[in-house]
Specification:
This protein has 15 helices and ten strands. With 416 residues, the protein is an alpha+beta fold. The protein has one domain: Cytochrome p450. About 2% of the residues have low confidence.
Length: 416
């Protein structure tokens, strides 16, 4: 292929990009709204209208795109070949529609709203543990355990079993890119094997849980999926599919929400006038969450597989190409949002962001993330006098171009 639309200097894995992708993405929208990222072998779509249309056109921009992790030989007899079978996010209609309908039973808004007291109790318990210290690592001590515990509570894991799985989301993220025998990777082979041991144990636990729901359904994720039927009355998801979806919930709902809460805290610390307005009015706080998602969401976008040659913004993307729908660029597109770099908790169209995608694959975990974020933010500033970012720190991001992942965010306050 010749004359690829390459934008020199565009590096979505660099720390500079991950720390602030907006300058690079603004340049892309202006000069190369559809570009080819040579180092990754993918195409990227950056303008709001183009990204929104791609989300809507599931026939051309298919979700049937998966990257299966390498499985250690020692687990060859324990782990089936379909250890990570296709789940509904990797499927298109009509199969996806039937699965989504079953999932909506669990993620309906009244059910999520009913979790508010439980989520607030988790926040309070976690804050209690460090409130007297005057400083903490917000990721390790609040946002990550909060998101993990909230996701697992939604799944239906008993409270007593939660400590066994609090590291599971991090394990799943770590093993996905690992390739045995390749030097210079983010984790060592020993760490890879250690993480796999925990994942295999978790999958065994979830399989037993799902099999129990086959016989005795309850009002939880496992029951909703394993008992879902298509129009002909046939099962939509097997036990293994259901187990995979439960793992996905922890994988997708923990790191992304944990990262976003920290990014929102950072934005509010950096804009004290906006913080004051948000704390004064619950409606403004709700809009601040949306504005934070627009301005600095943890999800940078979604991957799709192009099923035919398609023209976008005057550029032809060939069939079979992997395409990155850069939602964080779309959500900061000056064609849609006035002064997009400005963080404005009163922005009237803040909710038009594409941080959760759009259409059939709109993130079902959005209501839970929208519940967790304001509860955590309000509790931090209510209970910790002078709450602020610790000075002199620079966030270190994992080299992943779809989601912003970082392990530490240091904060401090005036301890009694």
């Amino acid at each position: 292929m010749t004359d690829l639309p390459i934008l020199e200097g565009f590096d979505p894995l660099s720390q500079a990009f991950l720390a602030d992708p907006l300058p690079s993405l603004e340049r892309a929208r202006s000069e190369r709204p559809v570009l080819y990222v040579e180092e990754l072998g993918i195409w990227a779509i950056t303008r709001y209208d183009d990204v929104a249309r791609a989300y809507a056109d599931f026939t051309t921009f298919s979700s049937a795109l998966r990257n299966a992790p390498a499985i250690p030989e020692r687990y060859a007899d324990e782990v089936p070949a379909d250890f990570f079978p296709p789940i509904f996010m990797d499927r298109d209609p009509p199969e996806h529609t039937a699965i989504r309908k079953a999932a909506n039973r669990i993620f309906r808004r009244p059910r999520i709203a009913a979790m508010e007291a439980h989520v607030q109790a988790i926040v309070d318990e976690l804050v209690d543990a460090f409130a007297g210290d005057g400083a903490c690592d917000l990721v390790q001590q609040l946002t990550y355990p909060l998101s993990a515990r909230a996701s697992m509570a939604l799944i239906g894991i008993p409270e007593a079993d939660l400590p066994r799985f609090e590291q599971l989301a991090e394990d799943l993220v770590a093993i996905l890119p690992y390739q045995p025998g390749v030097p210079g990777q983010a984790i060592s082979e020993a760490q890879w094997l250690e993480r796999w041991e925990r994942i295999v144990e978790a999958r065994s636990y979830f399989r037993a849980m799902v099999q129990a729901r086959v016989a005795e359904p309850q009002d939880d994720v496992a029951s909703a999926f394993v008992h879902a039927r298509d129009g002909d009355g046939q099962p939509i998801m097997s036990v293994e599919d259901t187990v995979s979806y439960m793992l996905l919930m922890i994988f997708a709902g923990t790191d992304t929400t944990a990262s976003y809460i920290g990014l929102l805290v950072k934005l509010l610390c950096e804009h004290p006038d906006q913080l004051e307005a948000a704390l004064a009015d619950p409606a403004v706080m709700a809009n601040a969450v949306e504005e934070g998602l627009r301005r600095r969401a943890s999800s940078l976008g979604s991957m799709r597989l192009v099923t035919r040659d398609v023209e976008v913004a005057g550029q032809t993307i060939p069939a079979g190409a992997q395409v990155w729908l850069v939602s964080t660029s779309a959500s900061n597109d000056e064609r849609r949002f006035a002064c997009p770099a400005h963080f404005d908790v009163h922005r009237e169209n803040a909710g038009d962001h594409l941080a959760f995608g759009r259409g059939r694959h709109f993130c079902m975990g959005a209501p839970l993330a929208r519940l967790e974020a304001p509860l955590a933010v309000r509790t931090l500033w209510t209970r910790l006098p002078g709450f602020r970012l610790a000075p002199g720190q620079t966030l270190e991001y994992d080299p992943v171009f779809v989601t912003l992942l970082y392990n530490h965010l240091h904060v401090e306050w005036d301890a009694a």
